[in-house]
Amino acid sequence: MKQLLSGVGLILLLTFVACREEVNTPRPIAYYRIELPDHSYRLFDTLYPYQFEYSKLSYITAVKNPDHEPYWINIVYPSFNANLFVSYKKVSTNIDTLINDSKSFVSTQIQKADDIIEYHIYDSLLNVYGISYDIQGTNVACPYQFWLTDNKSHFFRASLYFNHTPNNDSAAPVIDYIKKDMMHLIETFSWK
Hints:
The protein is an alpha+beta fold. The chain has a single domain, classed as 3-Layer(aba) Sandwich (Protein Transport Mog1p, Chain A). The protein is 24% helix and 33% strand.
């Protein structure tokens, strides 16, 4: 009788366990983990009127377009699908106009930006002055840009763009990585 009772109890227990409704729990939304290498740099030193160090993960192409000034380049990050667009102007009297144009480019990001942080660049030894803009926000098209000048005859501007619809939450590690490269570019920048 004890064996029959324990057998019936076991069958009832298995029946209740087997009849349990399966609960489907949705997976949390997550982004891919992006493995980033250590930063390493090489020197851009050509016949251009400026020089700097840039990431070994990128390459430089000259902009060949009759509508653009000479010495314009693109720094391309193929593995990140990103470009750093660089423009250069030799100037004499219109530096204030170029600075205001750069500020207006930044102001176009205000509607989508959560915050815009300005960093002032001042290197009297190398005669390099400017402002960098860290533009924070999920749907910002250009998360980082800067301009540099010597306040006499050179004006250099660079802005970071990705070749896809912005979703800066998922691209945050890559954006931070390239920002560090851009800061290194600024720190090693000099006029010729």
